[in-house]
Amino acid sequence: MAATAPLGAPSVHAQRRGPTLRFVAEADLKVLDPIWTTAYITRNHGYLVYDTLFGTDEQVRIKPQMVDHSTVSADGMRYTFTLRDGLRWHDGQPVRSEDCVESLKRWGKRDRFGKLLMAHTGKIVPVDQRTFTLELAEPFGPVLDALGKPSSNVPS
Length: 156
What we know:
Layout: H1 40-49, E1 54-56, E2 62-64, E3 67-72, E4 78-83, H2 97-108, H3 112-119, E5 121-126, E6 131-136, H4 143-148
Antiparallel strand pairs: 1-2, 3-4, 4-6, 5-6
Helix pairs in contact: 2-3
């Protein structure tokens, strides 16, 4: 006990500058791509760094994040998603609907829920730079649940 006395009590205090969040991870981050691995450290990093089309709030409701608004056809077979204004990549280039389409296709090849959604999907296509559609080939009720689920393979 005498050996630990010089260390003192841990110091916890509010940061004094800007809105910087400091995060100490539980493991070394070796893979940055949350689609390629199911490692929780990669998932946690992904949620801190990347935005997602939809997310799950504290009441476990699916809410839009990158999506400004979405519509569903009367028969539930066509979903139209419009991205928020001002979405940018790290280099300042705008995020476009074709980026989202390709990202969803990539996610749908690896994630279990994504594979199920893609098995029911006829096509996902960009309409313009901010809008894309997902057309189902057969009915599939939990489309938004699949797109907004918290998981280690994050749909973005």
